[in-house]
Amino acid sequence: MSDAPIEVPQTKEGWYVLHDAYVVDWPRWRACHAGNDMIEEAKAWLERAQTVERGDTAMYSIVGQKADLLFLHYRESVAALDEVELSFRRLRLHDYLKPSYSFLSVIELGLYEVTGGARRALAGRGLQPGAPGWDEAFQAEVAKHTKDLDARLYRKIPGHSHICFYPMSKRRGEGHNWYALTGDERRNLMRSHGAVGAKYREQVMQVVTGAIGLDDWEWGVSLHADDPMVFKKLVTEMRYDPASAWYADFGPFFVGVRHRPDDITELLA
Question: Would you please indicate which residues are annotated as catalytic (active-site) residues?
Answer without folding.
Answer: 166
